[in-house]
Design brief:
Oligomer: heterodimer
Structural class of chain B: mainly beta
Number of helices of chain B: 0
Number of helices of chain A: 0
Strand content of chain B: over 45%
Number of strands of chain A: 12
Shape of chain B: globular
Structural class of chain A: mainly beta
Strand content of chain A: over 45%
Number of strands of chain B: 11
Distance between the termini of chain A: 41 Å
Helix content of chain A: under 10%
Radius of gyration of chain A: 13 Å
Largest sheet of chain A: 6 strands, mixed
Largest interface: A-B, 27 and 28 residues
Radius of gyration of chain B: 13 Å
Helix content of chain B: under 10%
Largest sheet of chain B: 7 strands, mixed
Amino acid sequence: GDSVTQMEGPVTLSEEAFLTINCTYTATGYPSLFWYVQYPGEGLQLLLKATKADDKGSNKGFEATYRKETTSFHLEKGSVQVSDSAVYFCALRDNNDMRFGAGTRLTVKP
Amino acid sequence: VTQNPRYLITVTGKKLTVTCSQNMNHEYMSWYRQDPGMGLRLIHYSVGEGTTAKGEVPDGYNVSRLKKQNFLLGLESAAPSQTSVYFCASSYRPHRIGDEQYFGPGTRLTVT
């Protein structure tokens, strides 16, 4: 079945550092890809998405490009802030089936 | 999306129900469980009022969608292995490409 593999954390960075969180997927169809963010004690919130190959999703300085040839959707941000500290989930949706990665906890230190 | 209750402590063998409600007229609703190191796993979902379907980890759970705005998650006989955080989510259309899901705040269940 479909699956998502996400780089293991936790990840600790200093403020203004560059962030990359790797995500690869396995799917039989043509899924949509998502990054969700979860702040402590809250549900997941959509961060960005891409619906077809070569699409780039972006939001709040975060970016990810749907790479079909490498089956990847890596999350990047050029300069992280303390407020970006959270757990990040890569996910794919193929019709009614949604699969999530294990999550990567990011801590940004001042 | 709201969930009730937010916290629940029960004992092995008890029957319980968790309610999810949305007021966005969404067709699609789903239940996930979140366990450390495993991300979220889909338990059951519904593509409309009166419909339900199994997800990735359906065993030990039942659901009902009698009204469009509500999706109930039931445990007939709670087990310690079902200790987890449960999230409800909804979206507009079942098959709309790229449709994001809106998540509830979570229900933390402990079974002793």
